[in-house]
Protein: DUF4440 domain-containing protein
Organism: Colwellia maritima
Amino acid sequence: MIKNIIAMLLLVLSFSTLAHGDEKHNDDKQAIIDIISAIKYGWENGDGSPFRKNFLDFKGARYIEGGGQNAGLDSLVTHHVEPENDALEYLKLDFSGIEVHFEGDNKGFAWAIANTRVKGKVNKSGREFDKSGYQTFLFRKVEGFWKVVHSHSSSRDFKPKKERMH
């Protein structure tokens, strides 16, 4: 009888540990999705503050955007995010199909990939663009908060799939 009670207690304890782990996993996933949402806001509004808050600035950091490379957070914000706000009449960015993956036992490394769609209009030429592609973010947990340590964006002109005639 005692063996059965101990076995049942161990079973209940293991299930409660798993459930708690899933809750933590969901909280971390939501935190990362919230960061991606803040980054979207930053790009669309030429606002560097979401980047400064959510990106880890460290020697050797590289952020790949629009076929170019920004070495360090300051370069990304001052040479890419903020100037685009002045150069563009509008910028609309959508992230969809966001997948978040945690390495190991969620000890502090995660990555996310998203489908991207970016539309805008260049002030100087009046040229409009519509591109689609993918964005990858690498995250590290630092002092309890997720920080982007690398990002890479790749896109090309949006070409909707043609409907097939039967």
About this structure: The chain has a mean pLDDT of 86. Strands lie at 62-65, 68-71, 88-102, 109-122, 128-142, 145-157. The longest strand covers residues 88-102. DSSP finds three helices and six strands in the chain.
